[in-house]
User: Fold this.
Amino acid sequence: MSTTNRRIVLISRPQGTPQAENFRTEVVEIPELAEGEVLLRHSWLGLAPAARLRMTEQASYREPMALGDVVYGQAVGRVVASKEPGLPVGTSVMSIGGGWQEYSIGNAENLVKIDEAIAPPSVWLGALGTSGMTAYIGLLDLGKPRVGETVVVSAASGGVGSNVGQIARLKGCRVVGIAGGQEKVQHLTEVLGFDAAVDYRSPNFAEQLRVACPSGADIYFENVGGAVRDAVWPVMNQGGRIVVCGLIAEYNDNRQGGPGWFPILSKRLSIQGFIMSDHLHRQQAFLQDMRQWIREGRIQVQEDVSEGLESVVPAFIRLLTGKKFGKSVVKL
Amino acid sequence: MSTTNRRIVLISRPQGTPQAENFRTEVVEIPELAEGEVLLRHSWLGLAPAARLRMTEQASYREPMALGDVVYGQAVGRVVASKEPGLPVGTSVMSIGGGWQEYSIGNAENLVKIDEAIAPPSVWLGALGTSGMTAYIGLLDLGKPRVGETVVVSAASGGVGSNVGQIARLKGCRVVGIAGGQEKVQHLTEVLGFDAAVDYRSPNFAEQLRVACPSGADIYFENVGGAVRDAVWPVMNQGGRIVVCGLIAEYNDNRQGGPGWFPILSKRLSIQGFIMSDHLHRQQAFLQDMRQWIREGRIQVQEDVSEGLESVVPAFIRLLTGKKFGKSVVKL
Assistant:
């Protein structure tokens, strides 16, 4: 076992899209474990847009990272040294705050045991992890879909969006995905079973979206914001619900304006922002449903896989610029 | 009894604030009653901003008025001729669609009997009518106030706002009103018992609002939109609820932009548009509570009273330009 840890730290705050020079890879000694702690060797890292929010100094829903901090991110791996009897060496776990590094130290509070017999480790960072749970809670608990309703989801080929669309189909909804590029759009309808998909880069995107929603939209699962949201806005039906899960188009440039509010009144819209970690009491229900759907082949897992710690920053930039496909995971 | 009816019709669609020349007063013969109909002589008309929405051709939540139509509005009065056994001559009723005229024809479907022993007729157009019920439903059913929370209400001295603030006080909330001008602001705190009130015309309005909400705002009851809403936006607390009841600042000029959406996500805000007429099943509960609160002197009725049909248009313009005080009613 190594006595050193390679890790990626934030050395300057990105302006706009993060660049390689905002980060540095460093090698440090692994410290001694205290009582109750375990040393985790990461086998997979999961990348998520939320990390971008923490790179900015302005207040968000989480504390910003400090310069010099290991970059925030999830990881799965195995316990390789333990001073916690409940987590013996060899245990497979997921760490929400594992970070962009080869090793992390955790305890029983912040590690979740995973069962590799149900799904391989990387899936516990995606469909069975926070991406899947975010989709499940946001769509079912907040969007409250009814059979026959139309659900529109943006960033539809991403880690959250691909699960939102597939769960909505399972619940009897008509599902319209918004994604960037013909390859993703085809994948949504041909592989994931969406009823329709629209390319937001298309010059007549708004018109295509309207055509894809002949009965309007009852639920909009918002991952993007900006111009994508503005195109969905006029398509919303009376009584429509908008679940605001992410605003990735606005993370890099802090776009200030939103659409006018008149339709909120005239269409009795409801708009609900949410952060998955407020809903952890629903984790057992989520795991039970999602495990079964994956086992039955009703949810397909879509991953964008890179390999090696040196591929983390490029994969993260790809994630933020809409160039990846499925949940971003990095094999170490 | 007169055989003619004086009425105000819409002859052109207002651009911006309505002007006298958008309306014409005409005298017409009162038609014969059909079976099931009654003739109602209006004693009071109630004016509401919603009428402005129906003067515009664009789609809203109600059909626009046609040119030549009697202007939409509520009225109370007495049955003076009847072909409906359930509504004999002498019955006091409220008509939601009575309109800006001296007489209207109604039936058992669209008239509500009122009890003048509980409150004088004009109150059935305000605190015991749609204004009061809008406040009651919007605040209690949608805003869901909890004891100790801060409720901010705009157009706070108006027919809806004055009831929102008073009901919120009854429910144990700290109440901050937004209104135009020192006279209204003083009235809110000194007569209606608001905890604080802020003048949106003040040059440092946004700063005053922040000071008036030392613990932020948990509920914003939105009647105004535009710059007033934009000042409340940064004051909202995590988990805050915004009930969108009206956007009077945007009715005359169709302002398009709204605030950026990032706080919806970071603060998990919920924003809910509503139209009172979707909630008529709550009318009995409303009447029971509101009658009792008025009887006990816990809700004070505030009216802006004009007299005569010729005063209707000026009073309506005053209403839309923020120059009135309390529910706008016209005695005929």
About this structure: The first helix of chain A runs from residue 50 to 54. The mean pLDDT of chain A is 93.
